[in-house]
What does this fold into?
Amino acid sequence: MTNNNLIFIAKLNDASEIMQFIDDEWKKGHIFATNKDFFLYEYQNKNNLNFVISKSKSNKINGILGFLKSSSEENSTVWTTMWKVSKSSGSPMLGVDMLNFLRTQGFKSVMSLGINEQTKDIYKYLHFHVGVMNHYFIPNLRVKEKKISIMPKDIGEYKHSYIKSQELSFKRVGLIDLEDNFDFNKCTFQLPFKDLNYFQRRYFQHPIYDYDLYGSYRNNKLEAVIVVRIFKYLDSTCMRIVDFYGQENFLEFITSNLIELMYEASHEYIDFYCEGLSKKMILKAGFLEVDFKNKELVIPNHFEPFVQKNIAISYFTDSQCIENLRIFKADGDQDRPSSPNKDVFSK
It folds into this structure.
């Protein structure tokens, strides 16, 4: 209880009221305000909802803080998502109180992607680590007319090579492959740790988006997995790496094969938001770095609706193990639909 507001983990029967709060206070017509099936798919946890909510003395919701788990473990890492306090709450610190409540629930760490510039001082005051994800891309020089990106003429000087290996193979990855051939125990040091259940629900069972998983195999063992989603604007497409899991030294081999897929499908480029991977290794794999302030080179992030602009994605984490941090585009709620109109969804 804080300032007469009761803070607790939401129950399943709070779903309709939370959805109404999202519609009234977050964004009118948001998919989580209009599509209950998708709302429950994302947030239902048995008889609970993965939401911290605050209710006033009159038993009305006046604040919400959604969160998503990185694994099925009770003490998994969580990403915060929809975080909103009603102006009628009468408590300027209610949002922070809700965040602190979430941190008392036994999770390994709490983090968030896409944080607002105006709130960074709050996280620093709470002694959180705050940073900006790196953004990289690989251009397709065979596509002359760019409709999604903006690239300078001297980008034509860029060259990359295809890597061949006798001991490695590049294959599409299915759920059974992941279950039988990938050793998740090798990734327990990573923050966040993701398990098979996370990959199954996040990518293989997603009810709206289609994801493609590819991997590098050595002696029939899956050493690293990369997740991509194809984005479309007008009649042009791009390939976006939204997750990477496993041994980092296999990135170069996987990327060289993705480049071949990029050529075959005539995608404008491949791009990659990430944090925690070796920059030297990423550049060696053929990527170029995006300068967010350079208007002559634009690799967009927003497609719903489409905005031809470089976007920096900021994040926070309350963990002190920064050396183990591995963050990617699909973490948290950064690659999730917001509009109920499925026609805008890329497939």
